[in-house]
Design goal:
Helix content: under 10%
Largest sheet: 5 strands, antiparallel
Distance between the termini: 67 Å
Number of helices: 1
Number of strands: 15
Shape: flat
């Protein structure tokens, strides 16, 4: 009898675990505690930070890069027109124990047959001026993302600083739209470089 009760308890436990792990909506996924592939790196995150140790040199100064994802960096929207949301995330790497951005990427995931599938990364970097021409402002690292429901597109907002701007506070921005074509994200619309509105700065 005890064996029978124990068997039932195990089955309930196993079924409970299986049910808890079943993904029916991409918003169920905690991407701040997730293993992401960024470029050629496979990076495990815990509470939004890359699980790694800072490198300490002989003078006790930390170095190396730490990738991070904040909850505000995660967005959702139907990008492929199938009626289901995808997740798209901006992620940055900072110098260990500092706030200087050294790397950045946009990651996109879809839910396919109950599994999370990563879509190809895409280049979104914008130059502040044409190649070969003198330029009086430069792109700041880091981007802001949003979803255009009408276009079913990711909107990447890129920031630029003039020589008169503090490093923290670029005064210009540009918006670029990217649509999924079935195999890759392609740029199809771009605004002009304009002053940053106070509420988005």
């Amino acid at each position: 009898m005890k064996h029978f009760i124990l068997t039932i308890a195990i089955l309930i436990s196993v079924n409970g675990i299986a049910f808890a792990q079943k993904i029916t909506n991409i918003r169920q996924v905690d991407f701040t505690n997730y293993t992401h592939k960024i470029g050629d790196e496979t990076i495990k995150f815990k509470n939004g930070l890359q699980k790694t140790e800072c490198e300490i040199d002989e003078n006790g100064i930390p170095s190396g890069d730490i990738w991070n994802i904040e909850k505000d960096f995660i967005h959702f929207g139907d990008l492929d027109g199938d009626g289901k949301e995808e997740a798209f995330i901006s992620t940055i790497a900072n110098v260990c124990s500092g706030n200087m951005i050294t790397k950045e990427a946009v990651l996109v995931y879809k839910l396919q047959k109950g599994k999370i599938v990563k879509l190809p990364e895409f280049e979104y970097f914008e130059e502040a001026c044409e190649i070969g021409k003198e330029c009086d402002f430069a792109r700041n690292p880091g981007v802001s993302l949003s979803y255009d429901a009408e276009m079913k597109a990711i909107v990447v907002e890129t920031f630029f600083a003039t020589d008169e701007d503090a490093l923290c506070c670029p005064s210009l921005h540009l918006e670029t739209w990217y649509k999924w074509d079935g195999s890759a994200f392609k740029q199809f619309k771009k605004s002009k470089i304009e002053p940053v509105k106070p509420e988005t700065k």
